[in-house]
Amino acid sequence: MENKKWIIICIIGGILMIISSAVGSVAFFETLFDLIEEDVGEDVAKIVALVILILAYIAMAGGISVIVGSLIVAMNHYRLGKFIIGLGAGMGLISLIIFLISGIFEGSILDDLEGIVLGIVNGSYGFLGILLTIIARMKMKKE
């Protein structure tokens, strides 16, 4: 099974994401929903709000989502597993980039040597985990 090694790499990536606390947010989708909420009916708004809530919980889990998605792929639920892996890794990547950029602009990462080292170490684990996860997700094939 070719996917076994990619599933294991995804799990390792998820563990690295957990170590670095790389988690995601769906604030963009919530903002978009707030803009269109008045234009859709009440029933549609409730369904969309529920979907956004579910996606938010998956994205907040970050590395845990990647690990769960990998296990779902291992159980031959390929599309659902890859979707959850992508959501966990993608939102984690966006949040990690925002964290690093905001830290540089605020000066919190560049204030002292300890801050720089902690930022690099935590960012490295997160980026390495996300990179491994994205590569493994791309290499997974439906069997």
Write the layout of secondary structure elements.
Layout (H helix, E strand, L loop, with lengths): L2 H18 L6 H10 L5 H20 L1 H12 L3 H29 L6 H27 L4
Helix pairs in contact: 1-4, 1-6, 2-3, 3-4, 3-5, 4-5, 5-6
Description:
This protein is an all-alpha fold. It has one domain (3-92, 125-138). The chain has 6 helices and no strands. Helix 1 packs antiparallel against helix 4 (63-74), helix 4 (63-74) runs antiparallel to helix 5 (78-106) and helix 5 (78-106) packs antiparallel against helix 6. The protein is flat, with a radius of gyration of 17 Å. The mean pLDDT is 77.
Helix content: over 70%
Distance between the termini: 8 Å
What radius of gyration results from the CA coordinates?
17 Å
Number of strands: 0
Write down the overall mean pLDDT.
77
Poorly predicted parts: none
Strand content: under 5%
Descriptive key words:
mainly alpha, 143 residues, flat
Short summary:
The protein has 143 residues and is mainly alpha-helical. The protein has 6 helices and no strands.
